[in-house]
Amino acid sequence: MALPSVARPSRPLQNCSFPLYTAGSSSFAAPSLPHSRLAICWAGKEQGASCNIVREAGLSTRAVVEAATHHSLPPPTEFSWPFGFETRYELGEVLGRGSFGTVRVATDRRNGQVLAVKIIPKTSTKKNIEPERILHRIHEEVDVLQRIQKCSEALHLYEIFESDSHVYLVTDRCLGGTLEDFIRKHGSCTEGESAQVAHDILRVLLECHDQGILYADVKPANFLLINPYPDAQKLNDGDFSHQRIQIKVADFGCAQRVMEGQKLHKRTGTPLYMAPELFMQYYGLESDMWALGILLYQMLAGELPFWEPGGDRSPWAIMTGILEGELIFEGEKWENVSEDAIDLVRRLLDRDYSTRISAAEALQHPWILSQCGSEGCLFDDEAVARMPILQERQPA
After folding, report:
1. What are the distances in angstroms from CA 80 to CA 48, 84, 367?
2. Do 128 and 265 share a domain, yes or no?
3. Backbone phi, then psi, for 167, in 5-degree steps?
4. Could you say which residues bind ATP here (predicted)?
5. Where is the domain boundary, 134, 155, 171?
6. Do both 184 and 52 map to the same domain?
7. Whole domain around residue 154: which residue ranges?
């Protein structure tokens, strides 16, 4: 984010041995320190320097804090993002909570646009998590989200703010809830619906993998429906033909960078969706594809593979199922599922990561192509027929 030009205040900062800024310049002057290390925060004409930069530049933290206080500046912070979120946006209802933050409605005070904001604390209540680790994770999440902005299935990042204690990511507001909510309410999905979701997730994964980014937490809770499905107004109008599930990926909190040929060793993600190689602590981009296979099986069958519904989900049972469980496509739920759909699930749930299908290959799989085509996913007859049933299940 480019730093704005700011006029020099009428009174010089006291007790400072180097200039914190240059008049008429968009950057701060700190000899021997690279620009990426200049953690300067802005809120209009207000500025402050981070404690780390202060120490490395030979200043005492106290000196800069006193100078900032003297000029009504914000205290030192860790990033280069603007202050002043609450002067720009009005906070609304809570949309969701997770281990890494809270998502709320955010209304732009300038034009009334209703968006969403993910509020991420800079510290943790857990004593075993170091502050540096939290700040690194925040930086990585923002970096990944910025890198894949050209992918339409990623949330659009409008603005970034910070305060002394939090980071604020202003994004699209999705109105249809999570994919997890949808599966819980409606049970199994049609092949057309499942293909739509798989297609959109594959596009996100392809963009990530092309840039050497492991998403690392593919699961229904991390994907948002852009609009309610089915659309009540369209159903009332008798229009079933142009409805589709459209999703956005919502959370990059577990994303990791992977160099070509590199394998990661620290286990991450949600256990039920972990690939076998994660338990061996030797994994790469291929693990995202396994997780998508679990999700796709879940959508088609209305249940997870390897474990009986309501059965043992202890850590040992989860690991044993993933490493040794039999992949079954039998019973009433699979009677009307096509061989092409089953083939893609099998290729995604290949325990040998070296032969597992990639995102690029999966997008060219016959099932995805037949269900979605070149113009995006279209509804199958079964989906159209069950629209009124889904509408009845929608909450009031």
Report:
1. 10, 13, 46
2. no
3. -115, 140
4. 118
5. 171
6. no
7. 85-171
Number of domains in the chain: 3
CATH number, domain of 197, equals 1.10.510.10
Binding-site residues for ATP: 118
Q: Is the same domain home to 191 and 318?
A: yes
Residue that terminates a domain, selected from 152, 171, 190: 171
Peptide linkage before 31 cis (omega within 30 of 0): no
Q: Which residues are documented as binding site?
A: 118
Q: Tell me whether residue 237 is one of the annotated catalytic residues.
A: no
- Over residues 64-84, the mean pLDDT reads 58
Clarify whether residues 258 and 137 are in a common domain.
no
Confidence of residue 243 (pLDDT cuts 50, 70, 90): low
Give 9's Cβ-side CA count (13 Å radius).
17
Please tell me whether residues 160 and 183 are part of one structural domain: no
- 335 with 227, same domain? yes
Q: What is the pLDDT of residues 188-206, one digit of tens each?
A: 899 999 999 999 999 999 9
Kindly report the pTM of this predicted structure.
0.74
Mark whether 125 and 28 lie in a shared domain. no
CA distance 262 to 162: 33
Question: Which two tokens mark 108?
Answer: 């732009």
Q: State the catalytic residue, choosing from 181, 200, 217, 239.
A: 217
User: Which CATH number does the domain housing residue 128 bear?
Assistant: 3.30.200.20
